[in-house]
């Protein structure tokens, strides 16, 4: 019996030991498993933190890029406006040079004519003086005493009075010619000096223009270095187009009072294009993503005149992001035409313009890599194909 009890105690002790071992193993396994989970959790948390840091850095970089692009856009605006101002001055100087040059040509012709008249008058006076000298140095008293008949005396006196009067008139004409020649020479000298000053001013303006263009190219280079993804380009164009649409709606509202302007509704296929050049982007063609061209882009050299397609009133004349220096003309009855990327604007808001009148000069403002004109026609705020109106 004692042996049996001893055997049972042994079995119980072994069983208890086995249970304790199992419990210890389970506890160790749980601890190990828990440690692995904690490690995995810590690793996941670390990865999440790294991702969040990367996202924040990307946001900061994107924000910094957007700020830099915005700053560069402002610099581009300043560059475009500076080029516009100096180009306008240069155009005015060139016009003055042309006028002064034409005046100098006229003065040169007049001067030659006066010099010829002076020479002829000098020869005429010399001839009269020689004739008077050959008649002898007789005074009127001697002539009258030497005459036998009164009729001869009268004829002689009349003859000498005639010669004297003619000589006086010739001298007066000669003096008038000399005075006129002096005035022409003085005016010629003044115009020659003005021409020299204008020429020097023109050279200085050209140097300033080249410096402004170089600065503009640096800004464009800096802008292009900020590489944008397709989605970013699309978002940028969307913002620019929304700004344009908003502007045109405001222009349309402002133009409602203009009821006396001739409408474009009856002028389809009758208008001339605003500038001579090749259409490199057509109305409705793909621009970026789903965006399409709302107008046409006409490739043309810098400085070529941009002409109003029809008479109207200037509603807008300023710089607009993405479109550069822009002019908008109200043609009445809900029709407007838009001219973008100009180098300089020749008309101001409120100016009345006629068909064919120069309103701007072709450029590449607004960040364009090539020179040309962006041209739109809108009816009731909706863009329509310019080819419907222009021949």
From TrEMBL:
Coiled coil region boundaries: 41-117, 181-257
Keywords assigned by UniProt, alphabetized: Coiled coil, Hydrolase, Signal
Naturally occurring in which organism (per UniProt): Colwellia chukchiensis
Pfam families: Peptidase_M23 (PF01551)
InterPro entries for this protein: Cell_wall_metabolism_enzyme, Dup_hybrid_motif, M23ase_b-sheet_dom
Residues spanning the signal sequence: 1-32
Residue ranges of every copy of the M23ase beta-sheet core domain listed in the record: 293-386
Keyword tRNA-binding: no
GO molecular function, one term: metalloendopeptidase activity
Protein name: Septal ring factor EnvC, activator of murein hydrolases AmiA and AmiB
